[in-house]
Design a protein that fits this description.
Chain lengths: 375, 152, 362, 160
């Protein structure tokens, strides 16, 4: 095919006042650089520059065996590490047509949802902090600590667990796991009211977010905005509902969709998701069936040649894993479709015409994790 | 639309499309020149309505370079996988689909960055992750990494 | 009256007399000025250090933390250690900064707050200057600080600083109105602009009780507007660390940064003490007319304690605001002023004037 | 007129929401028993990590200085980032055969990602997680550890 050569796009017009937000900036949640052209306080356009922590996970996967890949996926979206692990595990199990024990499915679902709550808690902290309410940050972290303690007791680490393995789990849950989770849910149901009192209902917060950064449903779908972000625009995209995995088919839960498409809708979606996750956990926690914690797997896992795709609902949206296998023990090509990556691509479109403060609020409501973008 | 009907429909639109064996999705290899037209039809024709491009990946198949499109219709709930290939490793070029699915803008930049596949009519085709001065395309199979950072 | 034992007037006058008797008038004046200057400087340092410590402890407790607890018992020497660190830090000179203005800005900010504090009465007879137009003077002088902030933002040659400075300019110009008008409400009630007279006028009841509804509204408006004027709390747009990294003082380091830092806390102390003086009776004890015994007990509490207690209460309120609320956006900040505070204030002044005319106050 | 009332309703609701927020922070301010932070170096004595805590990879030794490692090298191949190096040794058995034993089990803590694959795949359960978490050192070479203690030997029942 013949190449059509476009003239190089002028990066930023000379006469515009442009500032670099990042790579070191408190509100970019990591090393993301946004070149923002301003007119006074108003954002005219914005160019994200990624890649400051690009580690080439996709390339590294090509030399790793499937069990080894698990620990790399932890490091993509480190706030929902379990869910990333789950995606790869499900993919390998699907390719090998392994049926994992029910117990594993239950535990994975519970742990995923706990991880989702923990991730949303951290999002709430940083959202509050980006809005200028620093106290939110400490409340969110205080409650997240409870989940991390449960994780640490059961899986040995607080952030990067590598707990799932293809075919099952690394080890069985701790005997106190169920009890602690129930204690936590009781605790957190009380504390989430504080969240609402402190931030959700606050008039300043409402003013800052209502009608800010609106994106329509069509655009949200076209941009591939998923997760609570996409569902804030009315895009029903919950993978747990549409392509169920784990034991999501067996539990009753609502897909939280709002149609306003603004920052407040995205905010409230996440708040509701925390409650919904607690509902899911409550339905499952007492019913974990007894059984083995791992299916029988071969020592060396080789995927049959072909291509596989697995979608899971990460805390930020739809996480897709695409693998092309040539029958070896390492993947031929591994591609992660990460939710933050797609969500970031909308930032320019959404934030045009907003103020700098709105840009920060929109960025916070998108909840992107930079290693998830850069991979 | 179920898989069989979808298959007929796609083959009706692009007779040259070749079916690829895939357990999960209905997969076609589309001639590169037809891809943009097909994409337009896929999105805007009411019985197809593939409005959601949930993944776009570049794959180096050693002999060829591929771009894989994973499409879903959020209204009709059906999925489709499309591939375009080129044997030209020196200057691989496809048409962009970022005017149809806006998410493709970043995905195509990523593919250009790591696979070296260029896209016609892309509004801002620059490297996304790596420096502008970076030599080579790391995800290609023939990429030589002098420092050997992956194995280190 | 019972609290005449706490009257500093005769004490001050005796020093004054001594100096003028033993020295020529010019030198006596110079020495008096020096003494006052040194006293204020020390006071300034102590209050600044204490406020920084208090803020850190208050916010820590609100956030379920312990706060500074390493340097000294309960971390009370933390701010001193911080201050020494700031003193010893390197002053980084920015290459393309306007050197003169860059160096001048922190001094303007700190001098403005220094000048304003001189008019505040701490106890009976204990104030540096008792102007006839004390309130007007304080309003005039305290708004000089914004010049320093604007200069800092402009001269740093940094885009974040400039945006921060511009925000701060817009903010202070608008909120100055509300601060002034809410004080005017009380001036109408008090009938004087002299601080000592205002305080004396509250001997039989603080103005916030005497002027009931309009005075309370004026108090709330003053509290909001003065929080905004000190660039604090939900109105810290000029700094806005999540948007503009540190706003106007991004490029400052070492002792110059400490000046901005200190000036912020001193401004907070200043507006709190004005609020305490004008609305809550300054050093005047809490009196309920008719309760003779209760009033006598209240009189035995020294006026300095009353004064600092009230100031501390208002400072606590301002810290409470800061550590609870998210930050406003610049347009909402101006909306709040021009659409809500200013109209309310103007109506409030009318109501107060009418009330004073009819004698409906206590 | 409607907007006139709306104006005051806005003020009222706004102030109410602000006071709700202040109630939360105020409540925590006056309840210092809810403080959750730990005083780390002071609580070192009482600080106990969870049993499963992944501090570092260790090789448990018995009282007789015996370990369970056969030196098979499975952990080395399974480690995703090359933080384990096995140096094997051959010894002469009494029956004349040569037997492979471990000489040095080198563990690079600085490269370890705590994925746990070495421990999971070890056929003789020679490795385990240690609870030590204070890994900060001034010299990077100190993070390279030899897991089998000097003079240690393999447990009898493993070697057979």
């Amino acid at each position: 095919m013949k190449e059509v050569i476009n003239l190089p796009v002028k990066n930023i017009e000379e006469e515009e006042y442009h500032i670099n937000m990042g790579p070191q900036h408190p509100s970019t949640h990591g090393v993301l650089r946004l070149v923002v052209s301003l007119q006074g306080e108003i954002v005219k356009s914005l160019k994200p520059h990624c890649g400051y922590i690009h580690r080439g996970i996709e390339k590294m996967c090509e030399k790793d065996t499937y069990p080894q890949i698990i620990h790399l996926t932890d490091r993509m979206d480190y706030l929902s590490a379990h869910i990333n692990n789950h995606a790869v595990c499900l993919l390998v199990e699907k390719a090998l047509e392994v049926e994992v024990p029910e117990r594993v499915k239950y535990i994975r679902t519970i742990v995923d949802e706990l991880n989702r709550i923990a991730s949303h808690q951290l999002w709430w902290c940083s959202f509050g902090m980006d809005m200028g309410g620093l106290t939110c940050f400490f409340y969110g972290l205080r409650d997240r600590e409870k989940i991390l303690d449960i994780f640490e007791e059961s899986f040995g680490s607080r952030l990067l667990h590598s707990y799932y393995t293809p075919g099952g789990l690394m080890m069985d849950i701790h005997p106190d796991f169920q009890k602690n989770v129930k204690v936590f849910i009781k605790y957190f149901r009380k504390k989430i009211k504080d969240y609402d009192d402190l931030l959700s209902g606050n008039v300043i917060m409402q003013l800052r977010t209502k009608g800010v950064g609106v994106i329509s449903k069509e655009d949200a779908i076209s941009f591939g905005m998923t997760g609570p972000t996409g569902r804030g625009s009315g895009f029903s995209c919950d993978v747990r509902k549409h392509h169920p995995y784990g034991v999501y088919e067996k539990v009753q839960f609502n897909e939280i969709v709002r149609t306003e498409g603004d920052t407040l809708a995205r905010y409230l979606n996440r708040m509701d998701e925390m409650r919904e996750s607690m509902n899911i956990i409550e339905q499952l926690i007492d019913n974990i069936p007894a059984g083995d914690y791992t299916a029988k797997m071969k020592a060396v896992i080789k995927l049959p040649a072909g291509e596989y795709f697995q979608r899971v609902e990460s805390a930020r949206g739809e996480l897709g894993v695409y693998v092309v296998s040539d029958g070896n023990k390492t993947p031929f090509r591994m591609k992660f479709r990460t939710p933050s990556f797609s969500n970031l691509s909308t930032l320019d479109y959404v934030s045009r015409g907003c103020k700098i403060a709105d840009l920060v609020a929109i960025g916070a409501s998108m909840d992107y994790v930079i290693p998830d973008i850069d991979r | 639309m179920d898989t069989a009907a979808l298959k007929e429909r796609i083959l009706g639109l692009v007779p040259e499309a070749t079916l690829v064996e895939n357990k999960q999705f209905l997969t076609f290899v589309i001639p590169a020149a037809k891809m943009h037209d097909l994409a337009l039809k896929l999105k805007y024709e009411a019985d197809l309505a593939f409005d959601y491009l949930f993944c776009q990946s570049g794959v180096d198949m050693v002999k060829t370079l591929q771009v894989v499109y994973h499409l879903e219709s959020t209204t009709l709930i059906h999925q489709l996988e499309l591939k375009v290939e080129t044997a030209d490793r020196e200057n691989p070029v496809f048409d962009t689909v970022c005017d149809i699915w806006m998410t493709a803008e970043f995905h195509e930049r990523e593919i250009f960055d790591l696979m070296g596949i260029r896209f016609n009519n892309h509004p801002d085709l620059r490297r996304l992750f790596l420096d502008e001065e970076w030599k080579g395309y790391p995800l290609r199979k023939d990429y030589v990494d002098e420092v050997n950072i992956v194995e280190l | 009256m019972a609290f005449s034992i706490y009257d500093f007037t005769s004490f001050n006058q005796s020093i004054d007399k001594l100096l003028y008797d033993s020295l020529p008038p010019f030198w006596a004046l110079i020495i008096e000025m020096t003494i006052i200057g040194v006293v204020f400087l020390l006071f300034y340092a102590v209050v600044g250090l204490f406020l920084v410590y208090a803020e850190r402890k208050v916010c820590a407790f609100m956030q379920n933390r312990v706060g500074p607890n390493r340097v000294g018992p309960y971390g009370i020497f933390q701010t001193i250690a911080d201050f020494i660190k700031l003193l010893m830090k390197e002053l980084i000179y920015i290459k393309n900064a306007d050197k003169l203005l860059f160096n001048l800005a922190p001094f303007i900010v700190i001098i403005a707050s220094f000048m304003a504090i001189s008019a505040v009465p701490f106890a009976k007879g204990l104030h540096a200057i008792d102007f006839d137009i004390g309130i007007l003077y304080v309003i005039a002088v305290s708004s000089l600080g914004v010049v320093g902030i604007l200069l800092a933002g402009w001269s740093s040659n940094n885009k974040y600083s400039l945006i921060g400075a511009m925000r701060s300019g817009a903010q202070i110009v608008s909120y100055e109105l509300s601060v002034g008008l809410s004080l005017v409400t009380i001036i109408i009630l008090a009938g004087t602009m002299q601080f000592s007279a205002i305080v004396e006028g509250q001997a039989n009841g603080w103005f916030i009780f005497k002027g009931h509804i309009p005075a309370f509204i004026a108090f709330v408006v003053f509290l909001i507007a003065s929080t905004a004027e000190t660039n604090r709390g939900p109105f810290d747009l000029a700094e806005a660390e999540s948007e503009l990294t540190a706003g106007f003082h991004t490029e400052y380091s070492g002792i110059k940064f400490a000046f901005f830092f200190l000036a912020e806390y001193m401004n907070m102390f200043l507006v709190a003490s004005i609020a305490a003086t004008v609305f809550l009776g300054g050093w005047m004890p809490f009196h309920v007319s008719g309760w003779g015994g209760f009033n006598a007990v209240m009189d035995f509490i020294p006026p300095l304690i009353w004064y600092f207690g009230k100031t501390a209460f208002i400072i606590f309120l301002m810290m409470w605001f800061k550590w609870t609320f998210p930050r406003l956006r610049i347009d909402q900040l101006l909306t709040l002023e021009w659409k809500y505070l200013l109209p309310i204030n103007l109506v409030n002044i009318l109501v107060m004037a009418f009330m004073v005319l009819m004698g409906w106050h206590f | 007129m409607n907007s006139f009332f709306q104006y005051f309703a806005d003020i009222f609701n706004g102030v109410k929401s602000l006071l709700t927020g202040m109630k939360v922070t105020g409540r925590y301010f006056f309840s210092p028993w809810e403080i959750v932070t730990q005083q780390y170096p002071e609580n070192r004595k009482t600080l106990k990590m969870y049993d499963r805590f992944k501090g570092e990879v260790i090789m448990p030794h018995t009282a007789n200085n015996e370990h369970r490692c056969t030196g098979c090298g499975i952990c080395e191949t399974n480690c995703p980032n090359g933080s384990i190096e096995i140096i094997q040794d051959k010894i002469d058995m009494p029956d004349g055969k040569k037997k492979r034993i471990i000489d040095k089990h080198i563990y690079h803590l600085s490269m370890c990602t705590f994925c746990g694959l070495c421990i999971k795949t070890c056929p003789s359960d020679a490795l385990a997680w240690g609870q030590e978490f204070e890994h900060a050192v001034f010299d990077r070479t100190k993070l390279t550890k030899i897991l089998n203690k000097p003079g240690s030997s393999i447990l009898k029942d493993i070697s057979e």
